């Protein structure tokens, strides 16, 4: 998932609540799990019994880790040519 989109979803959740972006959060969590983001964090975000503030904080960590994962993937795909 694109980092900008993940950040936009997180900002919307803080503003409007998790219920307003339920589908988007589910997609974000799927992308995070695929990228290897901690199951503990993704489970907290998904758990409707957790306090909203706890879920929002975990969501911020998920977005941060997803962004880091995306940058590492981009760097691994890049090809650098060094001219002698």
Describe the structure.
With 84 residues, the protein is mostly helical. The chain has one domain (3-75). It is built from four helices and no strands. The protein has helices at residues 3-16, 22-34, 39-46, 52-77. Helix 3 (39-46) packs across helix 4. The longest helix has 26 residues, at 52-77. The radius of gyration is 15 Å and the shape is globular.
Task: Quickly describe the structure.
This protein has 84 residues and is mainly alpha-helical. Helix content is 73%, strand content 0%.
Secondary structure elements and their pairing?
Blueprint: H1 3-16, H2 22-34, H3 39-46, H4 52-77
Helix pairs in contact: 1-4, 2-3, 2-4, 3-4
Question: What labels describe this entry?
Answer:
about 75% helix, globular, mainly alpha, about 0% strand, about 80 residues, single chain
Strand proportion, as a percent range, falls in under 5%
Helix content estimate: over 70%
Count of the separate structural domains: 1
Shape estimate: globular
- Residue stretches low in confidence (pLDDT < 50, at least 5 long) are none
Structural class: mainly alpha
Radius of gyration from CA coordinates: 15 Å
**N-to-C span:** 37 Å
Q: What is the chain-wise order of helices and strands? A: HHHH
Mean pLDDT: 88
């Amino acid at each position: 998932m694109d980092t900008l989109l993940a950040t936009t979803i997180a900002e919307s959740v803080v503003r409007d609540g998790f219920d307003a972006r339920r589908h988007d959060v589910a997609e974000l969590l799927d992308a995070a799990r695929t990228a290897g983001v901690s199951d503990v964090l993704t489970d907290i975000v998904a758990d409707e019994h957790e306090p909203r503030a706890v879920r929002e904080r975990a969501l911020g960590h998920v977005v941060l880790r997803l962004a880091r994962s995306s940058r590492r993937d981009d760097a691994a795909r890049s090809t650098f040519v060094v001219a002698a």
